[in-house]
Amino acid sequence: MHKRNDFTEIEDFLSDESFRLWAKYQVDQQQWEEWTLEDPKRAKLVEEARLWILAMKVERPILDEKSIESALDKTWDKINEAERARPLFRKQKQKIWQYNWITSAAAAVLFGALIFSYFNTSLFSNDSTLVYHELIQENEEGLVEQTNNSNKPQIITLSDGSSVLLLPDSKLSYPKAFLGNERKVYLSGEGFFEISKNRKKPFYVYANEIVTKVVGTSFRIRAYENQPNIEVLVHTGQVNIKSNESVEDSNTKEYVLLPNQAVRFTRKDLTFNKISDAAADNTLSKTKNNIEDINFSFADTPVSKILELIENAYLVEIDFPKDKLKNCYLTTSLNDQPLPEKLKIICKSLGNNTTYEMNGNQIIITSEGCD
Amino acid sequence: MKIKIKKSTHNNDLALWSNLKLGDEKAFSQLFEKYYSDLVQYGNSFSPFTAKVQDCVQDVFTDIWIYRETLNNNVIVKAYLLASVRKRIARHQERDRIFRKSTTVDAIEFLFDFSIEHQLIADETTSFAVSNLNKLLNDLPARQKEALYLRYHEGLAVEEIAETLEVNYQSANNLLYRAILNLRKEWKGIIVLLLSLFTSIL
């Protein structure tokens, strides 16, 4: 099995991973000891190779996690600086425009939908109503738009590791990558957001007339173009909300919400209404999604159970080696983590040969079992 | 004891690389976290100024992100990063030299010294042999030493070393071979004596 019987040179040994492990750490997975003793000629070569390894030590780098983290922050600062110095790419936006409107037939259908929502909004609103498509036209980052035309929630993962569960008849526009010091996305309809933490780059959701700002938390926004109110409900963490500055004569007061608190914004007269117990609010609890009720804290829970729960919460399909993970149990809390983060934590806990791959709502976990 | 196993992470790296090219910040951060300290260590082999070296490594990553759309699809990520850091430091030193109005603009020199695994050496005979070998290793020409470092510490294959050092395959192979051949020749005397002792114990 092992090719070592053909080894004739020092470098054959030095290049062999398992030999190095044996020489340096006495980790003898391949029975080097036995193999060496089988043949005295062999022993000579092995001993020489071992001496080479002892004489070729390289000290481990002194950098700890914290200094790597701060180096990464510094690099992002450099990137932002360099990007500000470069001209904006206008043509990127054009490209997305083109592939969204591939055929004229599709364009016609979408156009019809826009008219419909215009008509609808005008029933409730005055001139200051801001709607989704006006907002995304202001953005110059080159946005990707995802629309959920199905009858089930859809999962969207963003480039920063955040995830959004987009409800039916809703759409979200977001940049392929978040440049600059802010993360901005645009929502029409309803979505449940789980945002990855990044103090340096606050996350903004523009939903019609209001702006929701967070650093890293989970919350739900209901902002349908054809409904009179916009609602934001906080699940974990802290959320700041104010009206969009481009709405004229709106009051600029900022609302700070904590878990189980919500605001209802009345679009007609541009007023906010704070709800301090969201659970008691009729509309909010009626519209609650599956995921908001699930507790992601686990104590000695079979991995298959955890994955099943994730499947139900995010409406994804997870393919994993059932036999190999049969006896794996986890104790962990995945609350307040975006979907990619949840999967990452699970893979990490299972051991270093476990990885996941995500493609739309299909997730594949490959694993050799747990340690 | 913490055991760090260098798995063949090539495929994993490529996946991160292609995600990075599409603008995935997470992939970028992961590659950064994975290789940053290795790159700083390698960079420090050319220049003792850690702050400057770190600056160079960060600049390499900055360029990767900014020009991500123009990056090649099929690279060996680790070799690419090592080579970029090497080039960046070389350029840096070249500039310094120009300011100093020096006459020669040599390629940068690998100043790193291998050390000895003292805690794994129990007896004097071994200790003697290892110190000798260590001295011979550190006296090798810088290029040969660098090739050994890349081969056995960073785990690069010969063609990856060639890429990092910007030479062709044959030259990289020669560097490695010559290093080991020269050393073994010089060391023969010591080793013969030592091994006769060693095998008689066995």
From TrEMBL, chain A:
<keyword id="KW-0812">Transmembrane</keyword>
<dbReference type="GO" id="GO:0016989">
    <property type="term" value="F:sigma factor antagonist activity"/>
</dbReference>
<keyword id="KW-0472">Membrane</keyword>
<feature type="transmembrane region" description="Helical">
    <location>
        <begin position="99"/>
        <end position="119"/>
    </location>
</feature>
<protein>
    <submittedName>
        <fullName>FecR family protein</fullName>
    </submittedName>
</protein>
<dbReference type="InterPro" id="IPR012373">
    <property type="entry name" value="Ferrdict_sens_TM"/>
</dbReference>
<dbReference type="InterPro" id="IPR006860">
    <property type="entry name" value="FecR"/>
</dbReference>
<feature type="domain" description="Protein FecR C-terminal">
    <location>
        <begin position="296"/>
        <end position="365"/>
    </location>
</feature>
<feature type="domain" description="FecR protein">
    <location>
        <begin position="156"/>
        <end position="239"/>
    </location>
</feature>
<dbReference type="InterPro" id="IPR032508">
    <property type="entry name" value="FecR_C"/>
</dbReference>
<keyword id="KW-1133">Transmembrane helix</keyword>
<dbReference type="Pfam" id="PF16344">
    <property type="entry name" value="FecR_C"/>
</dbReference>
<dbReference type="Pfam" id="PF04773">
    <property type="entry name" value="FecR"/>
</dbReference>
TrEMBL record, chain B:
<keyword id="KW-0804">Transcription</keyword>
<dbReference type="GO" id="GO:0016987">
    <property type="term" value="F:sigma factor activity"/>
</dbReference>
<dbReference type="Pfam" id="PF08281">
    <property type="entry name" value="Sigma70_r4_2"/>
</dbReference>
<dbReference type="InterPro" id="IPR014284">
    <property type="entry name" value="RNA_pol_sigma-70_dom"/>
</dbReference>
<dbReference type="InterPro" id="IPR013249">
    <property type="entry name" value="RNA_pol_sigma70_r4_t2"/>
</dbReference>
<keyword id="KW-0731">Sigma factor</keyword>
<dbReference type="InterPro" id="IPR013324">
    <property type="entry name" value="RNA_pol_sigma_r3/r4-like"/>
</dbReference>
<keyword id="KW-0805">Transcription regulation</keyword>
<dbReference type="InterPro" id="IPR036388">
    <property type="entry name" value="WH-like_DNA-bd_sf"/>
</dbReference>
<dbReference type="GO" id="GO:0006352">
    <property type="term" value="P:DNA-templated transcription initiation"/>
</dbReference>
<feature type="domain" description="RNA polymerase sigma factor 70 region 4 type 2">
    <location>
        <begin position="133"/>
        <end position="180"/>
    </location>
</feature>
<protein>
    <submittedName>
        <fullName>RNA polymerase sigma factor (Sigma-70 family)</fullName>
    </submittedName>
</protein>
<dbReference type="GO" id="GO:0003677">
    <property type="term" value="F:DNA binding"/>
</dbReference>
<dbReference type="InterPro" id="IPR039425">
    <property type="entry name" value="RNA_pol_sigma-70-like"/>
</dbReference>
<dbReference type="InterPro" id="IPR013325">
    <property type="entry name" value="RNA_pol_sigma_r2"/>
</dbReference>
<comment type="similarity">
    <text>Belongs to the sigma-70 factor family. ECF subfamily.</text>
</comment>
